[in-house]
Amino acid sequence: MILASWRDIAKTIKRSDIVIEVVDIRDPISTRSKRVEEMAESFNKKLILLLNKSDLVPYSVAEKWKEKFISNGIDCIYYSIWRRKDRSLLIQKIENYSNGNGSLVSLVGYPKTGKSSIINSIKGKKSAQTSPIPGSPGYTRSFTLYKIKNGVYILDSPGVMPIEGGFPESIIRGKGVDELKDPVKPAVALIEKILKYNPKAFIDAYKIEEKDPYKILEQLAYKRMWIYRKTKEPNIDEAAKTIIRDYHKAKIDFYISPD
């Protein structure tokens, strides 16, 4: 996986008129980069915090997150690529900042927060390859310029992995799943976080009622018949990778409320 350097991100923000920081609305705090926001402020750039994948949380939760950030002085909009009205609202917000003079908009954020999908939805056709899993085909590997409409261009960057990113997000978004030397440790932390906010998540996703993360991994391995031939032990590494993949694909019901 190729990540943008902070020097490249700084250059991009400096040449932009508007910075759109894309975060995952299921966990906005962990997928937010304060360093990007500080750069935008230092260069006196307009910042929009875009809470993406808002179709994965209740409407009331999306509204509360938006209100929370706005009350803290951050312009914010929640977004789903499946809702046309969200596309119109985002373009209108960009135009409001542009004052009719045209704008270069930089789109930055963690890997797999959905930046390329947003570009595709804005243009109404596939102009940037997309994929929900870090390190897989479709991952943005270089800075690319897209014309949204006359006078409005969006600059898509490689996924940013801020150094302040917390565990396990910094691990499961920073590398492709198959690149992880020890997928179990971040998967266990991810399971614990998911269970904290949705105790029924793994019952709904896999029909597994266990609450201990390691037992969840074991049960999933047995269900999928991932068993070592010689020892007959469950292959929990493969189970860990599956849970991380399914998290990225939103197959596990999880979100954090600002309450």
Q: How many individual β-strands?
A: 6
The coarse silhouette is elongated
User: What structural class results from the helix and strand content?
Assistant: alpha/beta
* N-to-C series of helices and strands: HEHEHEHEHEEHHHHH
Task: State the separation between the terminal residues, measured CA to CA.
Answer: 35 Å
Helix content: 40-55%
Can you offer a commentary on this structure?
The chain is α/β, with parallel strands linked by helices. The chain has 10 helices and 6 strands. A 6-stranded mixed beta sheet has the order 3-2-1-4-6-5, sandwiched between helices. Strand 5 and strand 6 (152-156) form a beta hairpin. The model has no long low-confidence stretch (mean pLDDT 89).
Spell out the blueprint of helices and strands.
Layout: H1 6-15, E1 18-24, H2 34-42, E2 46-52, H3 59-71, E3 76-78, H4 84-98, E4 103-109, H5 115-123, E5 144-149, E6 152-156, H6 169-172, H7 184-197, H8 201-206, H9 213-223, H10 236-248
Parallel strand pairs: 1-2, 1-4, 2-3, 4-6
Antiparallel strand pairs: 5-6
Distinctive features:
about 260 residues, alpha/beta, Rossmann fold, 2 domains, 6-stranded mixed sheet, 10 helices
